[in-house]
Amino acid sequence: MAAEKELENGQFASLDSSRSQLQGSEELEKVSQSNFRNGLHEIIFVWVVTSAHWITQANLGNTIVPIRYIAEGLGVPPGASARQSWFAASYSCTVGGFVLITGRLGDIYGHKNMFLIGWLWTTIWSIASGFAKDEVQFDIFRAMVGIGPSIMMPNAAALLALAWTQQWKKNLAFVVFGALAPAGFILGAGWGAGITETGVRWEWIYWSMAIVTAFYAVASWWVIPETGGMNDFHSTGFDVPGSVTGVAGLALIFIALNGGSTFGWDQPKCGIMLGIGVLSLALFCWIETKVKEPILPMSLFKSPTFVAVAVSLCLGWMSFGMFQFYLPHFLMELRGESGLQATLHIFPIVPTGIIATLSAVYFLSRVPGYIIFGLSMLCFFLGQLLCALTPVDQTYWRMSFPAVVVITFGPDLSFACGSLVASDTLKPEQQGVAGSFVSTIINYSIALGLSLAANIERGVNPDGAKMLEGFRAAWFFGAGCAALGMVMTAIFSKGMSKKHAH
């Protein structure tokens, strides 16, 4: 997307003379200032737009931690964690699956318009989630909720990129944007646990979310300017066949993998859906080589380094999704903690996430990219390994706390470094779509990882009598994914060796 290209490159064409350069910079600053009435307007704008990120993560945390109350309300047995994983994974699937499409729609119909639609969509389907009568309805409604953040996230990035001409303001806004992710997950976890553990009906988790997102919709309409290209319409083509086949393929593969753990692989429907999903993705790849304006140009994959970064990101974030889902369950189901206690015990991801984000900003200009990217995979690996080896009766501070701290460095370091490494290996005109593709990988990988982990867990714990062994099997699988990411980083380290100056 054009806005994301501006963000990645961040450079203005050099002018012929120092005088014209000064005049040009003054003119650009005037354009930037004209987007906002005053400094307070800028601050409120950043708050409203970056809130899309914490809301995205809050919608995951508010379901994972109070999941036993939700499951009870929907008639799902307490030990059926494979069925419960649908509640979180269906949401992550659509968040990741639709990002490429919705970012492109923002380029065509205006980023502010799409951002507003994202808030309103989330509001409507959050209300519907509270009215779900069984787990199938709830899974469908949760998947529909996920489309809302998939609309908001790429268009929020575009709005932040277009709002200022001053690079330092863009950088600061994006640091805030990234740092809000762990805080959002914790806030959502405490939000859901606080509602259910005070005796309020679980449905109010989603109805209260609808109230908040409706407020943000109104605030976005009022705060986000129409100037500066933030709501421009562009009459460009849209890849409908590619969009349909791509999303259908991702959705069918997810449903098949998650359904295998729920219904059993002896059911023909799982294999049929998996086969159709793979064929749909193959058709998508063929279509993208034929259409004039593809949503994902296949030329991206001519770079072996980009492919290695994409696969490693997928493996690392698959691992992190297992941590997000299984650690709170370990604390609640096996250590007997309440949801609020479990939230408090995973709270260190907030300050650690901020430190990790600032560390990424500091080291990217001083250390080769493969070292930072490899370190992120090592953090994913060590965090999962610590979880897998933690005794149930051990104090939290011995191994659970270090696991929470260590693994939190994985997402922030991998996202920052992976995005820049991918940017280095691609042409300027490919920067925007590459950024959207990285977002797709991250969010869809969480759903994919939970699907595969649920299959492994059920294989170890088919009747619910070996919960600890099932959790550990999932964590060991997550550690293996991260280890494979380290190997790929080492193999392709030459293409990731660049340092990135501020």
UniProtKB/TrEMBL annotation:
For membrane topology, the record states: Multi-pass membrane protein
Where is the protein localized?
Membrane
All copies of the Major facilitator superfamily (MFS) profile domain together span 45-497
Gene Ontology terms for molecular function: transmembrane transporter activity
Q: Where is this region: Disordered?
A: 1-21
Could you tell me where the Polar residues compositional bias lies? Answer: 11-21
Record keywords, A-Z:
Membrane, Transmembrane, Transmembrane helix
Specify whether Transmembrane helix is a keyword of the entry: yes
Q: Does the keyword tRNA-binding apply?
A: no
Q: Name one GO cellular component term.
A: membrane
Q: What is this protein called?
A: Major facilitator superfamily domain-containing protein
